[in-house]
């Protein structure tokens, strides 16, 4: 059984990276006691805590975290859930998840050619024989997607057939998700460059009153990946691990997910086929064009997608209103 780290107070304190350039965004429906174990790693940083709904009610909708993304004034965002604890690596050392995310995000990605030693920019690794020298400069990394020990991020049907399954495997690897490949992004252990991709990190029109839930982070991930591919940006996955402490109720999850389980068979091919015009030189322009395609093509699946497309436009309008300096930012071939 994998145990969470309990010795983090004694963790080695290093000079914090990006101390004045990164916000930590946490949506919560619980108290903040869990932050005590993160204190050695989080204390130098600015935190944005987003109350998940009415404090007197239990409303489990992690999409509220994107409000924190919008109001932040920092270049980078790290976000975790309130049931994510500090994990231990195989040697028993507490994992500084934030530090590893920062290393991932500050080093280039390799979306255009796969390196079989995974991340060539990590210590002890490099480009393998046959890797084109013209691509070794890499691309800017927009997203670092971390993983979880203990409770895996499963959908409701998998939870129901594997109720006792726990992830005990620690894989010491970081890799770039290749261009043209989608992935199911989980928002509970995530870091991104807000300047490069922030406007695409909208977790969708989901939760109470909507016909679908638990697809909020994945929707943001699909939009983000299509836009990163178009703009020449990279997305990494792998390290760091956190310890996911609490399994959600699979029957409640099934009620939230059941339409999404059917709809994703239409949604994923939509994103796989999505292309953006050359005029889309900023994240905002890409996102608006994508919203039009959502309305045109996914609106035929269900009227919900018409509302979602409108919400995507509203999100960009609100983002630009709160972040006027980034409204016209242009990214071309991965360079701002």
TrEMBL record:
InterPro entries: Nucleotide-diphossugar_trans, RGP_fam. Signal peptide: none annotated. Its main location: Golgi. Keywords: Cell wall biogenesis/degradation, Golgi apparatus. The keyword Cell wall biogenesis/degradation applies. GO terms for biological process: cell wall organization; plant-type cell wall organization or biogenesis; UDP-L-arabinose metabolic process. It comes from the Eukaryota. One of its GO terms (cellular component) is Golgi apparatus. GO terms for molecular function: UDP-arabinopyranose mutase activity. It is found in: Golgi apparatus. Belongs to the RGP family. This is UDP-arabinopyranose mutase. It comes from Salix udensis.
